[in-house]
Amino acid sequence: MSVHVIGAGLSGLAAACQLTELGHHVVVFESANFAGGRARSYFDKHLDCRIDNGNHLILSGNISTLSYLHRIGARRSLIGPNEPIFPFCNIENGENWTLRLNQGSFPWWVFFRSRRVPGTGLMHYKALLKLRSAGKAENIASALGGTVNGPLYHKLLKPLAIAALNTMPEKAAAQPLKTVLSETLERGGYASLPRWARLGLSETFIDPALEWLRARGAEIRLGERVTELTPGQATVLAVPPWVAAELLPGLTVPTEFESICNLHFKYSMDPGEAGFWGLIGGLAEWVFVRNGIVSVTISAANRYLEIDTDVIAQRVWAELAKAFSLSPELPLYRVLWEKRATMVTSPAQITRRPGTRTTNPNVVLAGDWTDTGLPATIEGAIRSGNAAAMALIRPTDDTPEPNQPRRV
Ligand SMILES: Cc1cc2nc3c(=O)[nH]c(=O)nc-3n(C[C@H](O)[C@H](O)[C@H](O)COP(=O)(O)OP(=O)(O)OC[C@H]3O[C@@H](n4cnc5c(N)ncnc54)[C@H](O)[C@@H]3O)c2cc1C
Predict the structure, then answer these.
(1) Ligand 1 pocket, 150 CB below 6 A?
(2) 365 lines ligand 1 (CB under 6 A)
(3) Rounded CA separation 70/53 (Å)
(4) How far apart are CA 287 and CA 111, in angstroms?
(5) Residue 139 gets which letter from DSSP?
(6) How far is the CA of 240 from the centre of ligand 1 (A)?
(7) Helices 63-71 and 378-393: angle between axes, nearest 10 degrees
(8) Fewest CB within 10 A of the end CB: N or C in the chain?
(9) What is the enclosing helix (H) or strand (E) of 11?
């Protein structure tokens, strides 16, 4: 079969790889002059080095992502600590701690004060069980009930939830967080190793996929925007939701989006034990140290859209300088706003996520915004691409399960 894949983000590339592996001829159309969509690297003239459009963290429990990297020969291009550790720093009072999970699935780390979040006792961790019974319409804050006033919430669950769902917990749906935790933290340290691209997002996730596809006869057409679907043509539509709705009138899609702000500072600092920190009590939320660049992520950043970017850079650098005793002088920096970084993962918006199949039997959907059961992440995007590929080649009554991880 000849298949058109529209969009060369991670969902489109995952679908293209899956279909190519199964012997189909794939043509990928991408409107930009580069592939990668929301996960890409580029050379920044001002900083005189390559940077990513934003820090992307995955966990070792993201098995569809690891399978994708394995397929394209890039699994070894991820880095991260050998242990499942998550160092944190409270910018307000200088408090430092490291969450140290154990490798196995039984969480014996919670019995050790030195390994858990300071100020928390065993009972606090029971709160996580409340998420398991969260209903579809519930947000994280209400699912956790009274525990939202406790240290576990402020020092771990809230920063985790904001990062994973790119939505404030008072607004964010509990179910996708429940799924993330059940596939990572609840499976133990083996599934919770933090990982990120050693050189860059493109070098890990995108360029090896393009090479892999081209070597197997797939065509990649960059700079070709698709404005209408070809009738009767088998197609994976892997574009953002607003484009999908234009190409398929009547399709219900998420309509609210959240920003992510990334700041890249040209500065060399000690990467510490893990190479990254979670930050509490300031604007900056996660900081990564890599190749002479200190990169900061601020998620669910719509709340800061009114603040001037230079002011954000000054404030964030002042926080870093205080937390890590760095030079107070502002280094060269680049502030990158991704205004529609992901959909808002609220209960109302997730009901607008469409499944893989559409009313047109030749057209299937992929994208982190489709109904994967996961937040809008790399893992969700890749899983949606795999599911779209399978849906296209299976009879329509054999419904694929996009919300199930697929080992390929
Ligand atoms: C700053 C930032 C930080 C993030 N951090 C993380 C993280 O830490 N961990 C994590 O797991 N995820 C993270 N994400 C989310 C992750 O990047 C996305 O989930 C993933 O890249 C989405 O891939 P996609 O294929 O669904 O969509 P996209 O990447 O948006 O791909 C869609 C593609 O379609 C193309 N297109 C659009 N219209 C057309 C058309 N008419 N014709 C042809 N092509 C078209 C677009 O140019 C684009 O390349 C982050 C995202 C951002 C923006």
Answers:
(1) no
(2) no
(3) 23
(4) 28
(5) B
(6) 8
(7) 70
(8) N
(9) helix 10-21
User: How many degrees, rounded to 5, is the angle at CA 195 between CA 263 and CA 64?
Assistant: 115
pLDDT value, residue 369: 98
Distance (Å, whole) CA 84 – CA 89: 17
C-alpha neighbours within 13 Å on the C-beta side of residue 325: 2
Q: Two tokens at 122?
A: 């065993």
Nearest CA among 241, 234, 238 for reference residue 30: 238
Give the total residue count for the chain.
408
Which whole-number Å values give the CA distances from 97 to 90, 117, 297, in the listed order?
A: 9, 7, 19
d(C-alpha 306, C-alpha 9), whole Å: 29
Residue type, 250: G
For ligand 1, atom 31, name the residue with the nearest CA: 9
Instruction: Give me the DSSP letters along 277-307.
Output: EEEESSS--EEEEETTEEEEEE-SGGGGTTS
pLDDT tens-digit map of 169-180: 999 999 999 999
Q: Which atom of ligand 1 lies closest to the CA of 32?
A: 47
Q: What share of the chain is helix, strand, coil (3-state, %, to 5)?
A: 35, 20, 45
Instruction: Locate the ligand 1 atom nearest the alpha carbon of residue 243 and give its number.
Output: 38
Does ligand 1 come within 6 angstroms of the Cβ of 367? Answer: yes
Residue numbers of the chain with a pLDDT score lower than 70: 146, 395-408
Domain locations along the chain = 2-41+198-254+347-393
Q: Give the closest residue (by CA) to ligand 1 atom 34.
A: 7
Query: Would you state the pLDDT for residue 403?
Result: 56
Task: Compute the Cα dihedral for 184, 185, 189, 192 and give only its sign.
Answer: positive
Query: Which contiguous run of DSSP H or E holds residue 221?
Result: strand 219-222
- Which residues make Cβ contacts (< 8 Å) with residue 70, sequence separation at least 6? none
> What CATH number was assigned to the domain covering residues 2-41+198-254+347-393?
3.50.50.60
Three-state DSSP class for 173?
strand
Q: Is the dihedral of CA 12, 13, 15, 16 positive or negative?
A: positive
pLDDT for the residue numbered 408: 41
* Amino acid, single-letter form, for residue 120: T
The reported pLDDT for the residue numbered 250 is: 94
